[in-house]
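In response to reviewer comment 3 from the previous cycle, which asked for concrete evidence that the modeling workflow produces usable outputs, we include below a single protein chain processed end to end. The sequence was submitted unchanged, and the resulting structure tokens are shown without manual editing.
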Amino acid sequence: MGANIDLLNENNELNKLRNWKIFSQDTFSHSQLIGANSRVNNSIVSNGCIVEGEVSSSILFNDVVVAKNAVVKDSILLPGVIVEDGARVYKAIVNENYVIEKSEVINEVQQEIILISE
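The workflow returned the following structure tokens.
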């Protein structure tokens, strides 16, 4: 997870240089939508994302959906990933356009980072 996840650390080198701007490619997606009852903590949420569940210490690339009652922790979700209602994802890198189905649990043990792809 390396460089991307390091951005979440308050003491990373880029945070020491507060005048730096971070530029990213515009995906022409809508702005992120964070639901009224969702919880997002220490995470980066890109344009086009819809978050209705809980996201913690994670990076969501563009057009990711985290449904109601879903949990994403310590993970990186690449563009187009869908986490359906009640699903839980822990310490994983999830490849583009992957669908984590309703109530599915990914890497509950959380001992090592896993890669999820088709």
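The chain is about 10% helix and 30% strand. We consider this sufficient to address the reviewer's concern, and the full set will be provided in the supplementary archive.
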